[in-house]
Amino acid sequence: MVKLIAVYRRPDDVEAFERHYREVHAPLARSMPGLQRLEVNRVYGIPGGGDSDVYLIAEMLFSSREALEAALASPEGRAAGKDLISFARGIVSLYLAEVEA
Predict the structure, then answer these.
(1) Mind listing the GO molecular function terms for this protein (predicted)?
(2) Which of 48, 46, 49, 29 is nearest to 38 (CA)?
(3) How far is it, in rounded angstroms, from Cα 67 to Cα 69?
(4) pLDDT at residue 101 in the model
(5) Domains in the chain, start-ordered, CATH in brackets?
(6) Mean pLDDT for each consecutive 10-residue tract of the chain (101 residues)?
(7) Cα 52 to Cα 42: distance, rounded to the nearest angstrom
């Protein structure tokens, strides 16, 4: 199993970000072929109290590296990538990870 992990820093306009993420970006991401699960985590703080500069972490689970690469290369994956750049440039970092049981 592998994951594509997107870590979003706090956007300037949280309401606009949430609306776009919920109504546009998440549906595009969910349409990617081979996606087994999309998990969205909203960060509310850090241990010991205080605010985090991380706002949201999205994890997309795929069966293999090949499945992930195929999803990213698909029309749905390219559309999700283009959308990501349009609304989250400068606040998102992407990571690829292997899942250990």
Answers:
(1) oxidoreductase activity
(2) 29
(3) 6
(4) 80
(5) 2-55+65-98 (3.30.70.100)
(6) 98 97 98 98 93 96 98 98 96 97 80
(7) 11
